[in-house]
Amino acid sequence: MKRAFPALILVACLPASPAMARNARSFEVPAQRLDTALIALGGQAQISIGGVDARLAIARGKAVRGTMSINRALQIMLRGTGFDFVQIDASTFRIVSVIPRAQPVAPQRPVEQAQALPPSAVQAMPEIIVTASKQQQGLSTYPGAAHVEVVGGAGMAENMGTSAFIARIPALTSTNLGPGRNKVFVRGIADSSFSGPTQSTVGLYLGDLRLTYNAPEPDLRLYDIDRVEVVEGPQGTLYGAGALGGVIRIMPNVPQTGSVHASASAGLSATQYGSAGYDLGGTINVPLVTDRIALRVVGYKQRDGGYIDNNFTGMHNTNASRIDGARAILRIRPGDGWTVDLGGVLQDIQTRDSQYAETSLPPRTQSARIAQPHDNDFRAASLAVDKNWGHLSLVSSTGLVAHDLGSVFDASGFQGRPGSLVYEEAEHISLLTHETRVSHNGNDGSSWVAGISLLHSTDRVERILSVPDASVHPMMLAALRNIKTEAALFGEATVPFAPRWSATFGGRFGWARTSGEFVGGAGGFEPHRTQLHFLPTAALSWKPRADWLGYVRYQTGFRSGGIAISGGAINSAQRFDSDTIHTAELGLRFGTGESRFSGSVAGFFTRWNAIQADLISTSGLPFTDNIGRGRVFGAEASLVWRPATHLALDGALFVNDSALVAPALGFEDANESRLPNIARAGGRASFVWTAPLADRRTFTLDGTLRYVGQSRLGTAPPLVLEQGETVQLNLAAALDAGSWKVTLDVSNLLNEGGNSFSYGNPFSVGLGKQITPLRPRTMRLGLHFGF
User: What is the pLDDT of residue 443?
Assistant: First the structure.
């Protein structure tokens, strides 16, 4: 973030009321380098703080702890630093210098006059910090495609899950099997529609806690989450195996040791043609030892109404789901700049039935002979230790995840057997991760990070076939355990070598070992596999002006091979090989959060070797194989226009062209077939309008129109099925009075049906009749309050 030209700070946040500067807020900002302190204060106050002066990186801000107004917090932090602040508008503050400069400059206006200037007359340039870079780089200097979405505003309600930010970032797509069952893709890097032993193509994190290895994403609710960062990939150098498409980091709010505060929210929802739902959530922050120890706890409970009917059983609204969850962080500040965070996460999702329908039946209707429920039980614990020495920082994090998944499908007709059959799949995943890294930011714009990473994952899958009659003993189809261990050394550095130019380079040297144990099956496969890999990255960036950045980047990614249950026979297994990915990217970003126009454009080419894919055999049993070499061309663009102080319009689009160009043996019929789940084109258009009202209140209206083009369910038969071509309009309104807020959200306002996903049951998907309609028009009335 620091560089030869003036230093720059900004924290982007929610729309604020005109009284925000006077309303009391809780702050927990230790004494530290002033630029870093301002970033922390802006994040906690949910305001934008801009300032252009290289000495912000040298000055030291005072500690701010306790409940006070934003103006008072800034006064305390800036006392004795030689800097002051100017309030530009309701949610924007500018840091101004009162230190005589070494070089002659034009006389500054008095602060009183500067306050009267319109925002366009102020040359503060906002900055967003990309923590996913592991170097605290500002977005204005990060040589790659990145996105940040703040949680809690209209359109990004905290009761929502992954779908909230997927709807706002066109580079993100996902399957639509149901809550807690989906795979997320970034930048069109999609291998298959199902979760098997192959590692995910996206790295998913809660802070520094890695959430998944090969499981579907857990769909954590966004209660007490600050923001979501998406860094497009591959990100193999910094994140190792599995980040082929990129990384998603969900950043929670952290405990504050200076004050007690709490908040709660509740909502009621109604779905057209379906049943009602509700959501409850609450957060409490309690200092246990003032300025030393604090505990922050989040809890929530939800019920999403169903809207799918079953004409065979006569049941209505069968796909209702229940979500219960909690998170806690204990923060300990032993002194001397050390921070220790102990965290815990749990969430249970129970879905009564699948959410697909059949084209031969009335809308939103299926004919399965049995209910097809799904359970997703997620548990995690984490320990993070960090220390800051100004320009140098240390982060050491350890995480433990236990993830249990259970699915039931109607397997009637499997291998020609008569009567109703029940297929059950149970999966238990345990994941242990550790990373220790050291990073540095220099005043000249240089930065670097270096570290070590360790991972150990155990995945056990069991498949059972039975009949509804409990007196008949079920048959074990397969039971397989995969164990993976990885260790790596990594590093990346950015070095300015000319006034407007910087170079980035780095690499990751890793070791991976996989072992498979197939219970009760045929032998003949290699039970152990060890691999070494090197994942380099390099970039060149150019800043023709302070608010422009052009870059070219080369990145790589890797997934280790493993052992999978084969789809050709019962009680058999087969190996699959590692796959690698290479991406070249060219991009440009311009403007800032205060510019009238800002945006970005990027294009990339990807070569993907030995693609791993989770597939389905003609009998309906899942299996895994390498399908060959593919390539992906893609481009994306975004533009934000702020025609007025309280109005912002923005749009984004992407185009994607992929193909399997060199199919593996057995997949020749898929030559030149498109890779799955990624539409050829898609886009989003949205607006946010904020109106200050009397009595210190603010009204916000947010609207988003999203289009997802046509894609295919899979690359090879029987999955070459069309899906997509959906349009969804969402509207959200909020009345914010500071201590309370009322919201009204309407999703799928046009009540579009469409087909978002051509899959729901592996044993009948080959008939081509399965579709997944969008959730019908749903309205939610919510209330949020805090003290």
Answer: 77
Total length of the chain: 787
Q: What pTM, to 2 d.p., does this model score? A: 0.84
R_g of the chain, CA atoms, integer Å:
26
Q: Spell out the residues 6+ positions from residue 21 whose beta carbon is closer than 8 angstroms to its own.
A: 69, 70, 71, 87, 90
User: What's 136-154 look like in SS3?
Assistant: CEECCCCCCCEEEEECCCC
Contact 71, 86 (CB under 8 A): no
Beta bridge mates, 278: 268, 303
Q: In the β-sheet with 48-51, what is the strand arrangement from edge to edge? A: 48-51, 92-97, 83-89
User: Which residues of the chain are modeled with pLDDT < 70?
Assistant: 1-24, 51-58, 89-91, 97-129, 153-155, 519-527, 567-571
Alpha helices, DSSP H, located in 350-500: none
Instruction: With beta carbons less than 8 A apart as the criterion, state whether 73 and 45 touch.
Output: yes
Angle between the N-to-C axes of helices 70-78 and 34-45, in degrees from 0 to 180, rounded to the nearest 10: 170
Please give the distance of CA 126 from its chain centroid, rounded to a whole number.
Answer: 23
CB neighbours of 480 closer than 8 A, spacing ≥ 6? 197, 460, 461, 516, 517, 518, 519, 521, 563, 564, 565, 573
Spell out where 153-210 has E strands.
172-174, 184-186, 202-206, 209-210
Taking Cα atoms as reference points, which of 153, 307, 281, 271 lies closest to residue 221?
281
Kindly report, residue by residue over 249-263, the tens digit of the pLDDT: 999 999 988 888 899
Q: What are the phi and psi torsion angles at 255 (to 5°)?
A: -60, 150
From 295, 392, 381, 383, select the one nearest 337 (Cα to Cα): 392
Q: Are strands 597-609 and 579-590 parallel, antiparallel or unpaired?
A: antiparallel
DSSP E strand boundaries for 233-311: 246-252, 261-271, 276-289, 293-304, 309-310
Token reading at 155: 């359109």
